[in-house]
Design brief:
This protein is mainly beta. It has a single domain (about 10-80), classed as SH3 type barrels (Roll), CATH 2.30.30. The protein has one helix and five strands, in the order αβββββ. It has a five-stranded antiparallel β-sheet with strand order 4-3-2-1-5, with no helix packed on it. Strand 2 and strand 3 form a beta hairpin. The protein is globular and about 40 Å long.
């Protein structure tokens, strides 16, 4: 156990209410506040923004991303890029 995290979903649970970075298989990146997720890693983001080369390109607001389209999720300060 590291920092109270035993399993991958524990890390996502600790990131609820915080800004995260999500990388999709299409190459698109989204930054937003993690509101919810399920066992399939479907995620709901609030204030979601599409990011390209570190620059915000589109604002989506409340957004649902399918888990099978996600490559990685970073609940770190990298989301501030």
């Amino acid at each position: 156990m590291v920092n109270g995290i035993d399993r991958p979903l524990d890390l996502l649970n600790s990131a609820k209410g915080k800004e995260i970075l999500v990388q999709l298989k299409t190459g698109k990146q989204f930054v937003g506040t993690l509101l919810a997720f399920d066992i399939h890693i479907n995620v709901v983001l609030d204030n979601a923004k599409e990011v390209e080369n570190g620059e915000q390109t589109t604002s989506y607001g409340l957004t649902f991303l399918r888990g099978d389209t996600i490559i990685f999720i970073s609940p770190s300060s990298a989301a501030k890029a």
